[in-house]
Write a structure and sequence with these properties.
alpha/beta, about 200 residues, four-stranded mixed β-sheet, about 20% strand
């Protein structure tokens, strides 16, 4: 099977990071595309694992140099995805996993089209999301309220995604996400179908 792309999006606080951490432990054919950002690292984050952290000036230079597959400004900070390692992972027949926002999803799908499978992850309701954001203790109240406002906007983009997962139980959602990741590389749109048919029929 060839390489494929799995895009994961959803509001801040929906549990994407926890799910991805667990998912990446389950297979060596998974490649996580580590985003670059200008925001400060949270207390439980590690540079080069969660994000590549750079200055605003450095990020804007990389934009001019065309180094990003996609980039966006979210919550007053830049986020972007470097292109070169993604192309290598696809060549190596990996499942390339993106944790990006709805803007990034549109760009990835436009760039890679048929290789892309996308999943929108959220909570069962806004109140649950709000509770998680405050319990996390990572942001000031005004930042949390801004994230909740952005979440309402992000939810309206749900119809652009292939799958919806309600993350009210981590283990159940993880199983569903693993199934989607596995099946993403079996889509006929990700395969060289004509070559397969020719080989199957032993046609020269």
């Amino acid at each position: 099977m060839g390489g494929s792309i799995l895009v994961i999006s959803g509001p801040s606080g929906s549990g994407k990071s926890s799910l991805l951490h667990r998912l990446l432990e389950l297979g060596d054919d998974l490649y996580f595309s580590i985003s670059t950002t200008t925001r400060m690292a949270r207390k439980d984050e590690v540079a080069g694992v969660n994000y590549h952290y750079i200055t605003k000036d450095m990020f804007e230079k990389d934009i001019k140099d065309g180094a990003f597959l996609e980039w966006a400004k979210v919550h007053d900070n830049y986020y972007g995805t470097s292109l070169k390692p993604i192309l290598k992972a696809l060549k190596d027949k990996k499942i390339v996993i993106f944790d990006i926002d709805v803007q990034g999803h549109r760009i990835v799908r436009e760039k890679f089209g048929r290789l892309t499978t996308s999943v929108f992850i959220t909570t069962s309701d806004k109140a649950t999301l709000q509770k998680r954001l405050y319990a996390r203790g990572a942001d000031e109240p005004e930042v949390i309220e801004r994230r909740l406002g952005n979440a309402v906007t992000e939810m309206t983009c749900m119809h652009d995604y292939d799958y919806l997962l309600i993350n009210d139980d981590l283990e159940t959602t993880l199983k569903d996400l693993l199934c989607i990741a596995t099946l993403s590389r079996h889509k006929t749109s990700c395969l060289d179908v004509e070559s397969f048919i020719s080989a199957w029929a032993n046609v020269e």
